[in-house]
Amino acid sequence: MPSVPIPGETETKTNNIYIEYMNIADSYMDLNKYDKAVEFYTYALKNKNIFWTCYYKLGRAYVFAKKYKEARKIYNRLLKRDVNNTDLQISIAYLYAMEGKIESAINIYEYLCGKEQNNADILVNYINVLIADERMDDAKTKFAELQERFPDNANIENLNKIINTDTEENEESKKEEVDSNN
Question: What's the CA gap between 124 and 41, in Å, rounded?
């Protein structure tokens, strides 16, 4: 007797294949093989039922693969779907910073510091970007705010060392300049 196809069987098999692609990609992420993860997440995107999950994971894979521009495009698209998602906004600011687009990162962190005033991590990230851009006066101002508002924050000691080291180096440099002019 010839086999009769079961209604929906082909679609179920196809969906399972795409889910397996996502599982394979997840395994590659666990193995730190981000380019392979990107490849399999891209395959899995063809399943509309898991599209947004895979799309987010694809963005993460791009981040770990240091393909920041591609990751930022994905996170921006996700942010359009969820405009108030602070985590996505933080990620986009981070990606701008990693791309060397410091001014864009600073603008986002500045906005987020006003919006999420109880989130010390945003303030710490903002300070780090200011330090990376050598805006030490602004970094010191924000650091003082961090110390005042979040005195128990674990990052204070490390940031204090960075800021004070920079201050000491600037003072030494100015002293050497004065000495050489005399």
Answer: 32
CA distance 122 to 164: 21
Token pair, residue 181, equals: 């002019």
Q: Please tell me the number of Cα atoms within 13 Å of 93 on its side-chain side.
A: 25
* Number of other CB atoms surrounding residue 9 within 10 Å: 9
CA distance 20 to 31: 17
CA distance 90 to 19: 29
Q: With the C-alpha atoms ordered 58, 107, 85, 90, is the resulting torsion angle positive or negative?
A: positive
Contact 78, 70 (CB under 8 A): no
Under the banding of pLDDT at 50, 70 and 90, the label for residue 178 is very low
Cβ-based neighbour number of residue 76 at 10 Å: 14
For residue range 21-59, list pLDDT tens digits in order: 999 999 999 999 999 999 999 999 999 999 999 999 999
Q: Give me the residue label for tokens 């002293």.
A: 175
Which pairs with CB-CB distance under 8 Å and at least 24 residues apart come from 163-167? Answer: 163/131, 163/136, 163/139, 166/131, 166/136, 167/136
pLDDT tens for 124-135 read 999 999 999 999
Q: Name the residue among 106, 61, 112, 58 with its Cα closest to residue 86.
A: 112
